[in-house]
Amino acid sequence: MDLLDEPVPGVGTYEDFNTIDWVREKSKDRDRHREIATKSKESVLALMKSISDAFSGWLLMLLVGLMSGALAGGIDISAHWMTDLKEGVCLNGFWFNHEHCCWNSNETTFQERDKCPNWKSWAELIVGTNDGPFAYIMNYLMYVCWALLFSFLAVSLVRAFAPYACGSGIPEIKTILSGFIIRGYLGKWTLVIKTITLVLAVSSGLSLGKEGPLVHVACCCANILCHLFTKYRRNEAKRRETLWRSFFAALVAAFTLRSINPFGNSRLVLFYVEFHSPWHLLELIPFVLLGIFGGIWGAFFIRANIAWCRRRKTTRLGHYPVLEVLVVTAVTALLAFPNSYTRMSTSELISELFNDCGLLDSSQLCNYANVSVTKSSSNALPDRPAGQDVYTAMWQLSLALVFKMLITVVTFGMKVPSGLFIPSMAVGAIAGRLLGVGMEQLAYYHHDWVIFRGWCSPGADCITPGLYAMVGAAACLGGVTRMTVSLVVIMFELTGGLEYIVPLMAATMTSKWVADALGREGIYEAHIRLNGYPFLEPKEEFSHKTLAMDVMRPRRSDPPLSVITQDGMSVEDVESLIAETSYSGFPVVVSHESQRLVGFVQRRDLVISIENARQRQEGVVSASRIFFTEYTPPQPPNSPPPLKLRGIMDLSPFTVTDHTAMDIVVDIFRKLGLRQCLVTHNGRLLGIITKKDILKHMAQMANRDPDSILFN
C-alpha cells in the first residue's frame, strides 16, 4: 500500500520555529496550478473553479485593504480621543475629543480656539476653576493617573492574552516573510489585543508611535483572511508572495481610510504641509547638517537601545515587565506635563513643528515681533525678528529634544505595542525647527552675509523653519531605520510635499552614510540579531574565503551524519533515530557504505506518515521495513507489510560540492530561500549546511558569539 495515494493530514506542514522550504512550496503550488489548468478544459464547472482560483488573490487583497484601513482609522480616532481624555472631557458627549467638542461651539475665539464652554478640564470639573496652583496640581495629578491606568491596562492585556502583541513587530515580520514560522504571531488573539493595547499605549503618552505596530496589525489581518482561501491556507510560500497585489490592497486601504477621515482634514496624510516659499540651493548646507545629526542620533539610539534591551533580557529587570512599564510611564508623565511640547501627543507636536507660520496662526512658535504685512495674494510672510514667545518656545523645544532622545531609548522594546517612526521623527523635527528658526534669524539680521546675498533681500520670505523640521524628521528616521528611497516616499506620503524631495534625499543619504560609518545595522536588524531570529540580511556582504566543507556538519570531531537508507531500515530503526536526535530532517542514501544520495525527508513528515500507517494500514509493526525506492522488492513469507514512503521524500534536494565557496552558498540561501543544503564529494554525501549553520559562521567571522544565533 502506498500511503501517499491519498493526502495525509499534516504532511508537508511545518513545526513552530522552523524555516519553510521555499523550493518545495513553490513546486507544490506549480503542481496545483497545473492540475487546475488541466481540469479547466474538461468541464464548465472546472473552468469556473479555475477562474475563481485566479480571482481569489485579488479578492483576498480587497478584504485585507478594507480590514486594515478600517482598523487603522479606528485606532487613530480612539487614540486621539483617549489622549485628550487625560486633560479633560466634553460635556456634549464624553466620546468627543477636544477638537471635535469645540467644532460646533459659537463661543470659541480665534486667539483661544482650543477653549470652549463644552470642554472642561479635570480641574474645572473637580474644583470649579482652571486657574491657580491647586487647579494646576489637580490637572497634573489626573494626567499622571490616566497615563498610568492606560499603560497598566496595555501591559496587563499583552501579558495575559497575547505576549506576541508587544513591541513594533517589524523585526518579526521581516523574519516571518523570509520563511520562518512563529505560530500565533499573526493570529486572531494577537490582532485583537494589539489593536486594543496600541490605542492604550499611544494614549498613555509614552514616547512611542503606532505606525510600526500597524504593520503587524495589517499582517495579522492578511494571515487570518488567508485561511478563507485554500491555495493560501495550504501553502506557506504563497502567503508570503503578494508584492504586486499589495499595491491593490494599499489602494483599498487608502480609500477606506479616506472614507473614515480620521485626521479630520479630508486628506490622506497625517502631516499635511503647504509651504509658500521655495528652498534655495545654498540651504542644502543646513539640510546636510541635519542629515549628519540624524545619522549620529540614529547610531547612538541603536547602541543605547540594544544595550538596554540586552540588559532587560539578562537581568532581573526582564522579570517585572508590568513594573517597568509603570515606572517608565510615571517618569514620562511627570516630566512631560510641565512642558507644553512634551505634554501634547507626539503626532500633534510634529504637526505643529512642520507648520509654516501664516497670518492665521496663533501658535507660540509663530509669535514674531513687529509684524507689518502688506496684503498680497500669497499667504507667505517675510522673515521677522523672533518675539519673546518664540525664544521661550526654543528653550522648551530644547528641553523636549533632550527628553525625547533619552526616554525613547528605554521605551522602545517594552512589553507594550511600540512603534519608532513617530518618536524618531519628533526628535528630528525638533532639531530641524530649532535650526530653521536660527537660520531665519540669521537671514533677518545678517542678510548681507555671503550665504544669503543675492537670494535673501530684506523683507523677503527666505527661510521656512517648517521645512527644516520636515527634513530633520526624515534624517533622524533614516538614521535609525537606515531606509533611503522608501523613507523619502514615506515622508512624501505623510506630508504631501512633492517639491521638497531633493532636500529630503540629501538629508536621508547623508544620515545613512554617517550612521553606516558608526554602525552597519539599522534598529530592526539589530533587534533581529538580539533575539536570535534566523534571518539572512540581503544587504550584508560575505567577504571571507571559506568553503562549504568548513561550515558543514558533521565536523571532524563529530559523530557521523544521521542518515536513512532507502530500503534497509525498519520502522523501529527509524523511530529510534527520530527519538535519539532533534534534527528537522534526514538525508536518504542508497546504503551506509556507498553514501550515494537519493533524497531528503523531513522529520515531521516521517513521524506523521508512520503514525498514520500504524492507524490505517493493517499489520504494520516495529519490524515492518520502510522503502523509499520506486518499486518494492519481494518480501519473505510471513513478514509484516512494508511501508512505501517515497512520496514524502524530496527527490531533488539542493546540493553543493565540498569545495564550493561560502559566499556562493550564502547567496544561494538568500535567493532561493533554502532551509538546508547537502554537501557532496564525487556524488557521495559528506554533510549538511542549514541556515542556522550559515548564521553561526557569519557571526564567528564577525567576531561575535556564534551561540547568540539561537531563537530566544
TrEMBL record:
GO molecular function: antiporter activity; ATP binding; voltage-gated chloride channel activity
Keyword match Acyltransferase: no
GO cellular component annotations of the record: early endosome; endosome membrane; Golgi apparatus; plasma membrane; synaptic vesicle
Residues annotated as transmembrane: 55-75, 140-165, 186-208, 214-230, 242-264, 284-306, 318-337, 393-413, 420-439, 467-492
InterPro entries linked: CBS_dom, CBS_dom_sf, Cl-channel_core, ClC
Topology in membrane: Multi-pass membrane protein
Organism expressing this protein natively: Cyprinus carpio (Common carp)
SMART domains, A to Z: CBS (SM00116)
PROSITE patterns: CBS (PS51371)
Localisation: Endosome membrane; Membrane
Keyword entries, A-Z: Antiport, ATP-binding, CBS domain, Chloride, Endosome, Ion transport, Membrane, Nucleotide-binding, Repeat, Transmembrane, Transmembrane helix, Transport
PANTHER family: CHLORIDE CHANNEL PROTEIN, H(+)_CL(-) EXCHANGE TRANSPORTER 5
Family membership noted in the UniProt record: Belongs to the chloride channel (TC 2.A.49) family.
Keyword Membrane on entry: yes
Main location: membrane
Residue ranges of every copy of the CBS domain listed in the record: 552-618, 649-706
Entries under Pfam families matching the protein: CBS, Voltage_CLC
Name recorded for this polypeptide: Chloride channel protein
